[in-house]
Specification:
Elements lengths: L8 H18 L8 H9 L3 H9 L6 H10 L4 H10 L45 H12 L3 E5 L6 H11 L11 E5 L6 H11 L8 H7 L5 E6 L11 H11 L6 E7 L3 H4 L14 E5 L5 H12 L8 H11 L3 H16 L2
Parallel strand pairs: 1-4, 1-5, 2-3, 3-4
Helix pairs in contact: 1-5, 2-3, 13-14
Protein name: HTH cro/C1-type domain-containing protein
Pfam families: nSTAND1
Organism: Candidatus Chloroploca asiatica
C-alpha cells in the first residue's frame, strides 16, 4: 500500500523546476521572449518574482501554483502531488509521477559548444536575461529620462543598447526607427561625431548646435552612445558634450540619451575644475551588474538543453564562483568545462 505523500519543500522545488525545465525543452524556439519570461507574464508577475518562487526565496501562492501546473501541461495527479509536497495542506495518496522526470539527452552525438560567445549581441534570440534591468530602462525612457549605463567591460552594456532598439517597438510611444545607435569606437573628432549623428537622423548635411536643434523641432529620438569614454580623448572638445546636453535636456528636447561607459560620467568628463560633467548632471545612472545567481544557473541550463552534456551541482557552483557571474567570464569558463566534458 502506498504511503501518503507529506510536505517536503526540497522535493517540491526539485520537481517544480524539473517540470519547468522539461517544458522549456519541449517548447524550445516557440517562446521568443524566453520560457520563464512567458510564464511570469501568464502568472501576472515579473521574471524576478518567478525566480524567487522557483529557488524557494518566496513561497508561491497556491492559486499561482495551480495556474503554473496548467501552463506546464501537468495533469491533476501531478498538480496534487506538488500541492502536497509544497505543504499547502491537501492530502492525496499518490506517488510522484514519472512525467516530472526530464528525459536524458542522447549522448550519441555531442552538439557544438554553446558557450564562448563574446562581444556585442545583436540577435534577440542570442540575448539572455536582464529582464528587470530592461524594464527599468524602458520605464525611465518612458519618463523622458536620459540614462548612463555603467559597468565593467564585457558585462553586457553594448548588448543592452542593441536590445533597446530591438524591443523599443513593443513599448508605448517608442518606435525602433526613433532609436539611433552610434559606436564611439568609430568616431575620432567632433566633426566626425556630428556627421555620424546627422546621418543617423537622415539629414543630408552636417548641422551643429542651434541649427541642428532647429532641424529637429517637433521630432524625438533616443540616441544610444556606446563606449562614450572614447569622447574624452584629446580629439574631442568640451563643446561637443555641452551641445549634447543642449539637445537632450528638458521635456521638449529632441534627444533622449542612453550612454554606456565603464566609469561614472562625472569621473570621465570633469570638464572644468570644481565642476561636474554637463552630461552627468542630466543622465540618471544605472549600474549593469553581473547575472543574479538564479539567472546565471538558468543561462547554463538553457544553453546546455539538448546538447548531450550536463554540469553537476558542484561544477555549476564552481563556475558561478570562478566567474563572479560576470556574463563574459561565465561564458568562457563554461566553454572550457564543456570542451573538457565533451572529450570524455
Amino acid at each position: 500500500m502506498r504511503q501518503p505523500i507529506t510536505a517536503d519543500p526540497e522535493a517540491f522545488l526539485a520537481q517544480l523546476n524539473a517540470a519547468v525545465a522539461a517544458y522549456r525543452v519541449q517548447t524550445q524556439g516557440r517562446r521568443p521572449q524566453g520560457t520563464k519570461t512567458w510564464l511570469a507574464e501568464q502568472l501576472g508577475c515579473d521574471r524576478t518574482t518567478l525566480y524567487k518562487y522557483l529557488d524557494g526565496t518566496n513561497r508561491i501562492p497556491l492559486a499561482s501554483l495551480q495556474l503554473l501546473t496548467k501552463l506546464l501541461g501537468l495533469d491533476e495527479t501531478v498538480c496534487n502531488t506538488l500541492i502536497v509536497l509544497g505543504g499547502y495542506g491537501v492530502a492525496v495518496p499518490v506517488a510522484p509521477p514519472e512525467s516530472l522526470t526530464v528525459p536524458a539527452a542522447s549522448t550519441t552525438k555531442i552538439a557544438p559548444n554553446p558557450f564562448g560567445r563574446r562581444g556585442r549581441i545583436d540577435d534577440p534570440a542570442e540575448f539572455f536575461g536582464r529582464e528587470e534591468l530592461l524594464r527599468q530602462i524602458f520605464e525611465e525612457l518612458g519618463k523622458g529620462s536620459n540614462l548612463s549605463l555603467i559597468g565593467p567591460r564585457e558585462i553586457g552594456k553594448s548588448s543592452l543598447l542593441a536590445m533597446i532598439q530591438h524591443r523599443s517597438s513593443a513599448q508605448p510611444g517608442i518606435s525602433s526607427e526613433a532609436v539611433l545607435q552610434i559606436d564611439m569606437q568609430l568616431i575620432h573628432s567632433d566633426e566626425d561625431f556630428f556627421e555620424a549623428l546627422c546621418a543617423e537622423l537622415g539629414l543630408t548635411r552636417l548641422y551643429r548646435g542651434y541649427h541642428l536643434a532647429r532641424q529637429l523641432t517637433g521630432r524625438r529620438y533616443i540616441l544610444c552612445l556606446d563606449e562614450i569614454e572614447k569622447m574624452r580623448r584629446d580629439r574631442f572638445s568640451a563643446e561637443v558634450r555641452e551641445e549634447l546636453r543642449g539637445l537632450s535636456d528638458g521635456s521638449t528636447a529632441p534627444l533622449t540619451l542612453v550612454v554606456a561607459s565603464g566609469q561614472p560620467l562625472a569621473e570621465l568628463f570633469p570638464d572644468k575644475l570644481g565642476d561636474t560633467s554637463p552630461l552627468a548632471n542630466i543622465c540618471h545612472p544605472l549600474e549593469v551588474p553581473p547575472f543574479k545567481r538564479a539567472e546565471a544557473r538558468d543561462f547554463l541550463a538553457t544553453r546546455l538543453a539538448g546538447t548531450g552534456i550536463s554540469f553537476d551541482e558542484e561544477e555549476i557552483a564552481e563556475l558561478l564562483e570562478q566567474s563572479g557571474r560576470h556574463p563574459a567570464r561565465l561564458q568562457q569558463a563554461a566553454a572550457a568545462l564543456y570542451r573538457q566534458k565533451s572529450r570524455g
